[in-house]
Amino acid sequence: MTDLLTIASSRLVACFDPLGARMRVLQLDGGANLILDADPVLHPGWHDVYPGVVIGPVANRVRDGRVVIAGATHQMPQNEGTTCLHSGPKGLHARTWRVSDHGDSSLTLNHTLEDGEIGLPGVRNFTVTFEMQDTTLTVAFAATTTAPTPINMAHHPYWALGGTQRVQIAADSYLPVDADNLPTGRVAAVDGTGFDFRNARPLPPEIDHNLCLTGGRSAAPRRIATLTGDHAHLHIASTAPGLQVYGGTHLPTLPGTDIRPGAGIALEPQGWPDAANQPAFPSIMVTPAQPYRETTRYTLMPATILPCFGPADGKVAC
Fold this sequence. Notes:
Layout: E1 5-8, E2 12-17, E3 22-28, E4 54-55, E5 61-62, E6 66-69, E7 72-75, E8 84-85, E9 98-102, E10 106-113, E11 124-133, E12 136-145, E13 149-150, E14 154-155, E15 166-169, E16 171-174, E17 188-189, E18 201-202, E19 208-213, E20 222-228, E21 232-238, E22 242-246, E23 266-270, E24 285-286, E25 292-302
Antiparallel strand pairs: 1-2, 2-3, 4-14, 5-8, 6-7, 9-10, 10-11, 11-12, 12-25, 13-24, 15-18, 15-20, 16-17, 16-19, 19-22, 20-21, 21-25, 22-23
């Protein structure tokens, strides 16, 4: 393993690689790593599934990689058929971030994209701060731009809390997708579907959908999901309007590791996919006068403590 940047609280330890601002280790009370990780030297293809990285400038999928801003069409890379997934091969996940601050319990990384990079306008300055306190890791995103541009950042760890993981999500609706896994534009109720996680249950491995979080975007992080496993329980709070839920069905099988299809779950607070092309979706457009901000908090508990699921509105404070 290459030299990593470490931060810690009294209960948590996390290690990061500046390439992709990638979180490679997250431990509670000195226990097992709670996210999937592999040595990129031994398994160079592992990075292709975005493990632990920061994704941007536009996370998730953009139809045909095209974004129209003020009547002008901007072309992003097409790396999933004609779709642009996670901003293409040179997105923020593939960039080496600068370390601007590194303390015992916090780490701040920065990266700049020049005007036209990734096919989008504006000189864009991105910042991510990871900060620990007790059993909570806070991930704070910020970005500024010199021209109107879409920004939708996301953190992409694969959670592996042990055993059969169960998830509860505060979402009453989801986005149906077409054959290209792109939103159709319709917002559908979760009632009576396989996308109803208002009560905790295992994820179907084939899921890769956006759940529309109850209440939409919020000014402060509110509880949106709980994930439970044999080693730990995880509460996620976020300001984001959506949660992309991925069951890990396309994870590779890596010899000498525990990594295989379905071994980890990605729960990614973010804006809705293809929002730049869907006027009815919550906007991901950012301007010089309105910079980007999004915050997510991961709070972990030992598996010996019973998880508190609470109601579907996610307002329980436990």
